[in-house]
Design a protein that fits this description.
Distance between the termini: 51 Å
Strand content: under 5%
Largest sheet: none
Protein name: Tripartite tricarboxylate transporter TctB family protein
Helix content: over 70%
Transmembrane segments: 6-26, 38-60, 72-102, 114-132
Keywords: Membrane, Transmembrane, Transmembrane helix
Shape: flat
Pfam families: TctB
Number of helices: 5
Organism: Sporosarcina contaminans
Radius of gyration: 19 Å
Oligomer: single chain
Order of helices and strands: HHHHH
Length: 147
């Protein structure tokens, strides 16, 4: 039994179910056209299915792993990093917080090549800027620190 797989599966199922429940309030069209809830419901359904698969794999796996608790620790630290990202974004903006969280997750994942630690966050931010700001004209939050 692999505790991290079971835990991740249950969390995925709960998150998928929660967001599926939220789509029930979306406006529904009476015609045959696809409504606003169609794609989010597909994503929620896939998240629930993959969570079930992960849960079942965790239960069926008989191998005891000594690294299970270390894996749970890594997952919890990663969640804390993402939570800090969510909390910091309104203040320092999308671009800086995204670059910092990608850098932090890479560093936490034991990536030590300086070129990778610099190029991946900058490349991701540049990609978002070009595609969303320039091409699609979507405004990205800059944060209250820079307003």
């Amino acid at each position: 039994m692999k505790i991290p797989h079971i835990t991740s599966g249950i969390i995925s199922i709960l998150i998928g179910g929660f967001f599926y429940f939220l789509t029930l309030d979306f406006p529904d069209r009476n015609t045959m056209e696809v409504g606003a809830a169609f794609l989010p419901r597909i994503y929620c359904g896939l998240l629930i299915i993959f969570g079930l698969i992960l849960f079942i794999q965790g239960i069926l796996d008989k191998e005891k792993s000594e690294k299970q608790w270390m894996t749970i620790g890594y997952a919890l630290i990663s969640m804390v990093i993402v939570l800090a990202y969510i909390l910091a974004m309104p203040f320092i903006g999308f671009y800086i917080s995204t670059a910092l969280v990608i850098f932090g997750l890479l560093f936490f994942s034991k990536v030590r090549r300086v070129a990778t630690l610099i190029s991946v966050p900058l490349g991701a931010v540049l990609f978002v800027y070009i595609v969303f700001e320039l091409l699609l004209k979507v405004s990205i939050p800059l944060g209250s620190l820079f307003l």
